[in-house]
């Protein structure tokens, strides 16, 4: 797997994990867990975008 594809895939995984943590934090009333989820989701989006940039640079 190319590094750009791996980067995009890992970014998607972090976004999904972040969404689950955020939802669990909301349900449990745990603001810390909710914040961690939001942060992980943002990091996943950034990682996915880096993968897209790498793919463009490989062309």
TrEMBL record:
<dbReference type="Pfam" id="PF05532">
    <property type="entry name" value="CsbD"/>
</dbReference>
<comment type="similarity">
    <text>Belongs to the UPF0337 (CsbD) family.</text>
</comment>
<dbReference type="InterPro" id="IPR008462">
    <property type="entry name" value="CsbD"/>
</dbReference>
<dbReference type="InterPro" id="IPR036629">
    <property type="entry name" value="YjbJ_sf"/>
</dbReference>
<protein>
    <submittedName>
        <fullName>CsbD family protein</fullName>
    </submittedName>
</protein>
<feature type="domain" description="CsbD-like">
    <location>
        <begin position="7"/>
        <end position="56"/>
    </location>
</feature>
């Amino acid at each position: 797997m190319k590094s750009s594809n791996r980067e995009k895939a890992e970014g998607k995984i972090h976004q999904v994990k972040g969404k689950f943590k955020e939802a669990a934090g909301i349900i449990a009333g745990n603001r810390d867990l909710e914040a961690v989820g939001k942060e992980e989701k943002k990091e996943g989006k950034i990682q996915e975008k880096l993968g897209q940039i790498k793919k463009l640079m490989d062309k």
